[in-house]
Amino acid sequence: xxxxxxxxxxxxxxxxxxxxxxxxxxxxxxxxxxxxxxxxxxxxxxxxxxxxxxxxxxxxxxxxxxxxxxxxxxxxxxxxxxxxxxxxxxxxxxxxxxxxxxxxxxxxxxxxxxxxxxxxxxxxxxxxxxxxxxxxxxxxxxxxxxxxxxxxxxxxxxxxxxxxxxxxxxxxxxxxxxxxxxxxxxxxxxxxxxxxxxxxxxxxxxxxxxxxxxxxxxxxxxxxxxxxxxxxxxxxxxxxxxxxxxxxxxxxxxxxxxxxxxxxxxxxxxxxxxxxxxxxxxxxxxxxxxxxxxxxxxxxxxxxxxxxxxxxxxxxxxxxxxxxxxxxxxxxxxxxxxxxxxxxxxxxxxxxxxxxxxxxxxxxxxxxxxxxxxxxxxxxxxxxxxxxxxxxxxxxxxxxxxxxxxxxxxxxxxxxxxxxxxxxxxxxxxxxxxxxxxxxxxxxxxxxxxxxxxxxxxxxxxxxxxxxxxxxxxxxxxxxxxxxxxxxxxxxxxxxxxxxxxxxxxxxxxxxxxxxxxxxxxxxxxxxxxxxxxxxxxxxxxxxxxxxxxxxxxxxxxxxxxxxxxxxxxxxxxxxxxxxxxxxxxxxxxxxxxxxxxxxxxxxxxxxxxxxxxxxxxxxxxxxxxxxxxxxxxxxxxxxxxxxxxxxxxxxxxxxx
Length: 657
Description:
Strand content: 35-45%
Number of helices: 13
Helix content: 10-25%
Oligomer: single chain
Structural class: alpha+beta
Distance between the termini: 29 Å
Shape: globular
């Protein structure tokens, strides 16, 4: 993204949330997909072959394929999962592959794992010995090693299937098994409990099944599964942010057909964002927010929401009240930071934060230059990422070497690159996942934090503020990514994404506090006047016009519009300007992008004259009003657009917040 443009990009919150959930599904999906190989009297071993269709809100969204090979040393299970989601021309495709090696008793010996969520894969190998797991992560031609201690036995897919078959017979029966989850680099215990016996229809056949509840220790989500008498999975259900996520046993042809992906209805995506009771002004950064969170599934519990600048005022049942304060800009902190045991994981490279890459090291040094202050250096890195990255909705998670080469990604890519450059400069960093406010809603988002002295400071290269990232966000989880992305995609993310409502109770900006009472409306329309006190907007309606778009929400930037006879419309849109941009130049470029080659002029709007452009055919006209870091774009379309624009602009009032 160039510094020569206004901030009109819109991170795709829907697909971001989907990707997080998909990764969580994969992490836990293969604890029972394994099938007993057919009896074989000789070696080489027999092979089993299972296919599954993945559905989201009853739409096909991908497949799972698994093969199990029995041999003289035990079992080898190879699994593949592909998930594809389509939305308004954007396509998210995430692939996973794993291979598990087990002893004849079903104990894990080795796990290979590969995730492809961009053009470059990340790979992991875990070698399991008694009480110790040696982990090698590989990405971008570099290898990073770590270790994990455990106690007890670790079972693989075939071992789990055998335990299920032996221990799950009747309602109330329970089996608990421990395994290694490669994506999250963790050891976890999974418990399955039989709920009932049922007849399940698979295709045209009815199959006797055990309905079971599945719980992973330490994670909130309960899954429902149906197993056959051999312990093989027939069907699995899990509630997600877009409705029910289902996995069904299927024929190979049906599974492969599902690989084209699903086009989920717009209302399904809209259900994943959290509409707010009012819209927030963006003239200046939001310094303080008081929020009421209401959990739609309180049985999932609440994660620990005490994060940077964020505290819990009260929490009872399904309701939690938070306050979020924008941290003050620190000064006088030098860098590179001294490496200690506590800071080591936030300074060292890993498979995603590849701060030891030669190009990244060179780039960080070039951007920082001779700067000695860690905060000012961090802001320089944030600006570089904001100016040079471009949004690409098809790249969900990618290592830093790929991001810096292609300079494309979602908000996760922006955060990953910023955190990587910070580490390369010797500034501790981590990735935070949560919600961010945008255009009347909170949606899933990721940003970076740098540690300056003893304080973590949020920076957001995708939703940029002047200085420290503002308080219009809710942090849910933070991670150095040393152990992969599991800390971000499991646990807290599952508890909250798609599961909460958010009500703004108070906000502070520009030194003023604005309380929001439960009965307050987002706007009012009295006779011929639209009044939005939170945004400081008042618009009078000319005779013959009617108000439209008063309830628009992201990704629509409209706040209010006017509809007139003969198909004429006027729409007022809320946009923002980068803090380092020349405002007048930024507005001029935006107007030129909306009406290329338009005739320049000025018109009366608000409390003065503002720039405008009129198209040669008279069908389009635009004007721009600046208020702090906000750019209010007025767009008129239809016959006589120039006159329509001028009539509406004269009736617009913008007050300072």
